[in-house]
C-alpha cells in the first residue's frame, strides 16, 4: 500500500498556510483525489488520501465555523471505501459553497449613512476588520450618489441626518426597484417603540439602538449578507446538480459579452447525456438524479476552460468558452467525454453503468443573439445524436447537417407564411398543407420531427387529424402542437386527451412558438419518421 500523504500536485491542508485557505485548500486537494479515482490503478491510494484530507480538515479546525460540513466530514470518514467514493462528490459540492462564501465578503460593500464621524468610524473599523468594504455617507444626498455608482450589498441608516429624516430615505429606497430588496439596518438614538415599529413597517430589516453593541451588530450584518447571498445563489442554482441554472447562464453570458474587450471570441457548447430517459425508467428518478448530479460535477471539473458551465434543461448542459474557437472548445469537450466514459455510476455492482453525452459546439458571431447561437448548437447536438451519440460535433467535423422538418397544417395562408418564415429562419424546414386531409395523407412519409396543426380546417379538422395521427403506428410518438384560435376549455381538454403535446392560442408570439418547438424537439424520444424515397 502506498504511503503517499496527498495526491501529487495537490495542496496539503496540514501545511503552514493551509489553515489560511481552510475550506478552499481542502477543496483543491479533494478535487485532485477525484481525478485520481478515474484511474483504477490509483483508486486505493486516492481513497487513502481522501481519508487523510478529511481527517486534516476535521482536526485542523478548518470546519469549525461550518457545523454541517463538520458533521458530513465525520460521517464520510466512517464510510467504507464504496460509500466514501459515492459521497465524496456531494461533500465537495458543500465545500464549494462554503469556499465561495469565504471569498464573498471581499465583494460585499456596506454603505453607512451616518453624520457622526466618530460613530461612522467605529462602524467602519468593525466591518472592515470583518472583511467588508465600507463606504461612509454623512448625508442622504451623498448616499444616493454611492447607490447610483456602486453595487451596495447592505445599507446602515441613521434616522437623524443633516439633510432629512432617515425614514423618508428608507421609504424612497423601498420604492425604487433598484434598492427594493437591499438589506437595510437602521441604527439610531432611542426614539421610542413607535419609531421602531414605523421603520419596520417601512421595510427595515433590523433596528439597533445607540449606543451600539458593535459585536452583535457585526454578527447580524454577516448573517444577513450570508442569507441574502444564499437567496440570490438559490435563485440561480439548479437544485439537482448545484450548477448555475438557465437564468444564471444567460445573465453570465450577457455580462461577459458586455464587459469583454472588443473582438473577444466566444464559442458555445450544448451537450446532452445519452439514453438518460432509459436510465430513469430502469432505476428510477432518485437514481437518475444522482447520475445527473455526479455527471454535472465531473463535467464541470473537466471543463475548467469554460467561462460558464450550467445545467440547461432535463439532461442537457451548456457551456460558454471565452477566447476559444469552436474547434478548441470541441477538443475540450472530447477530453471531458473521455473522462466521463471512465466513471462507473454503479460502483461495486454488475454490470457497471457508464454514461456518455452528445454535444454540438459553435462559434458565436459578433453581434449574434445568444438564442440563435444556442439554437445552432442544439442543431449540431441533434446531429451528434442522429450520428450514433457519444460524440462531439463542431461546424468543421461533419459533412452534412440534417435539418429537422416540421409539418404545418394551416388553412390561413397569412398564418402559414408567418410561421414558415420564422421557423425557417430558426433553422427548420417547413412543409405546409392547407387542410387536415392532405396533411394526414403526407405525414407518414414526410420525415417530420414535429407537427403543428390548426383546429378549424376544411376537409378534416385538427382534432380528427390529431386522432388519426395517434392511431397511426409510425406517427403516434411524433410531437404535435395545436396552434389555434379555439380557446374554449373543452377544445383544450379534448386536444390533450387525444395526445397533443402543446396548445398555443392565436394571436401568438412567434418567439414563444419557436421556443416551444425547440423544447418539444429536445425530448429524447423524438427521432422523426422516415422520409419517403
Q: Please give the share of residues in helix.
A: 40-55%
Sheet with most strands: strand arrangement: 2-1-3-6-7
Number of strands: 17
CATH superfamily of the largest domain: Reverse transcriptase/Diguanylate cyclase domain
Tally of alpha and pi helices: 20
**Percent in strands:** 15-25%
Radius of gyration, rounded? 29 Å
* Global geometry: globular
| Low-pLDDT stretches | 1-21, 524-533
CATH class of the largest domain: Alpha Beta
The tally of structural domains comes to: 4
Largest pleated sheet: 5 strands, parallel
CATH topology category name of the largest domain? Alpha-Beta Plaits
Average residue-wise pLDDT = 83
CATH architecture of the largest domain: 2-Layer Sandwich
Distance between the termini: 64 Å
Task: Give the structural class.
Answer: alpha/beta
Written overview of the protein:
The protein has four domains: 18-105; 108-233, Rossmann fold (3-Layer(aba) Sandwich), CATH 3.40.50; 246-393, Reverse transcriptase/Diguanylate cyclase domain (Alpha-Beta Plaits), CATH 3.30.70.270; 405-521, Rossmann fold (3-Layer(aba) Sandwich), CATH 3.40.50. The protein has helices spanning 18-21, 23-37, 43-59, 67-77, 81-104, 117-129, 140-149, 166-175, 193-202, 214-235, 246-259, 276-283, 285-302, 326-341, 370-386, 413-425, 436-442, 462-471, 489-498, 510-521; strands at 109-113, 133-137, 154-157, 160-161, 164-165, 184-188, 206-209, 266-273, 308-313, 316-322, 357-364, 391-393, 405-409, 429-433, 448-453, 480-484, 502-505. It is α/β, with parallel strands linked by helices and 533 residues long. Strand 11, helix 15 and strand 12 form a beta-alpha-beta unit. The longest helix has 24 residues, at 81-104.
Amino acid at each position: 500500500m502506498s504511503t503517499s500523504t496527498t495526491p501529487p500536485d495537490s495542496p496539503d491542508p496540514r501545511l503552514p498556510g493551509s489553515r489560511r485557505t481552510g475550506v478552499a485548500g481542502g477543496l483543491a486537494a479533494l478535487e485532485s483525489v477525484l481525478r485520481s479515482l478515474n484511474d483504477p490503478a490509483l483508486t486505493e491510494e486516492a481513497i487513502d488520501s481522501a481519508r487523510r484530507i478529511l481527517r486534516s480538515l476535521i482536526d485542523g479546525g478548518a470546519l469549525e465555523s461550518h457545523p454541517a460540513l463538520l458533521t458530513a466530514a465525520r460521517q464520510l470518514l466512517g464510510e467504507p471505501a464504496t460509500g466514501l467514493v459515492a459521497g465524496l462528490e456531494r461533500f465537495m459540492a458543500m465545500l464549494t459553497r462554503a469556499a465561495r462564501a469565504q471569498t464573498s465578503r471581499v465583494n460585499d460593500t456596506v454603505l453607512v449613512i451616518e453624520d457622526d464621524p466618530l460613530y461612522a468610524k467605529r462602524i467602519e473599523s468593525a466591518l472592515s476588520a470583518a472583511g467588508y468594504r465600507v463606504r461612509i455617507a454623512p448625508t442622504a444626498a451623498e448616499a444616493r450618489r454611492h447607490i447610483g455608482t456602486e453595487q451596495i450589498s447592505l445599507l446602515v441608516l441613521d434616522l437623524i441626518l443633516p439633510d432629512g429624516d432617515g425614514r423618508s430615505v428608507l421609504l424612497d429606497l423601498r420604492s425604487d426597484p433598484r434598492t427594493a430588496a437591499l438589506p437595510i439596518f437602521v441604527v439610531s438614538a432611542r426614539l421610542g417603540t413607535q419609531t421602531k415599529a414605523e421603520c419596520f413597517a417601512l421595510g427595515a430589516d433590523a433596528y439597533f439602538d445607540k449606543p451600539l453593541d458593535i459585536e452583535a451588530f457585526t454578527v447580524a450584518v454577516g448573517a444577513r449578507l450570508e442569507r441574502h447571498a444564499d437567496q440570490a445563489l438559490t435563485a440561480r442554482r439548479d437544485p439537482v446538480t448545484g450548477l448555475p441554472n438557465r437564468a444564471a447562464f444567460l445573465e453570465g453570458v450577457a455580462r461577459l459579452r458586455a464587459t469583454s474587450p472588443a473582438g473577444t471570441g466566444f464559442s458555445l457548447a450544448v451537450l446532452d447525456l445519452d439514453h438518460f430517459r432509459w436510465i430513469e425508467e430502469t432505476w428510477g428518478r432518485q437514481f437518475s438524479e444522482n447520475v445527473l448530479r455526479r455527471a454535472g460535477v465531473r463535467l464541470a471539473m473537466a471543463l475548467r476552460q469554460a467561462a460558464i458551465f450550467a445545467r440547461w434543461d432535463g439532461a442537457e448542459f451548456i457551456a460558454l468558452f471565452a477566447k476559444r474557437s469552436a474547434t478548441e472548445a470541441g477538443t475540450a469537450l472530447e477530453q471531458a467525454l473521455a473522462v466521463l466514459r471512465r466513471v462507473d455510476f454503479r460502483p461495486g455492482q454488475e454490470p457497471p453503468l457508464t454514461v456518455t453525452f452528445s454535444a454540438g459546439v459553435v462559434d458565436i458571431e459578433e453581434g449574434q443573439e445568444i438564442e440563435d447561437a444556442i439554437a445552432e448548437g442544439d442543431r449540431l447536438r441533434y446531429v451528434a445524436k442522429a450520428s450514433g451519440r457519444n460524440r462531439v460535433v463542431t461546424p468543421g467535423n461533419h459533412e452534412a447537417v440534417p435539418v429537422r422538418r416540421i409539418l404545418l397544417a394551416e388553412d390561413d395562408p397569412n398564418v402559414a407564411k408567418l410561421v414558415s418564415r420564422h421557423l425557417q429562419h430558426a433553422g427548420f424546414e417547413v412543409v405546409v398543407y392547407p387542410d387536415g386531409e392532405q396533411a394526414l395523407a403526407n405525414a407518414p412519409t414526410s420525415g417530420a420531427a414535429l407537427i403543428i396543426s390548426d383546429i378549424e380546417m376544411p376537409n378534416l379538422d385538427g382534432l380528427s387529424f390529431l386522432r388519426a395521427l395517434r392511431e397511426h403506428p409510425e406517427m403516434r410518438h411524433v410531437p404535435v402542437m395545436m396552434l389555434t384560435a379555439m380557446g374554449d376549455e373543452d377544445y383544450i381538454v379534448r386536444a390533450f386527451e387525444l395526445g397533443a403535446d402543446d396548445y398555443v392560442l392565436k394571436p401568438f408570439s412567434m418567439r414563444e412558438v419557436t421556443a416551444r418547438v425547440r423544447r418539444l424537439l429536445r425530448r429524447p424520444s423524438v427521432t422523426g419518421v422516415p422520409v419517403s424515397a
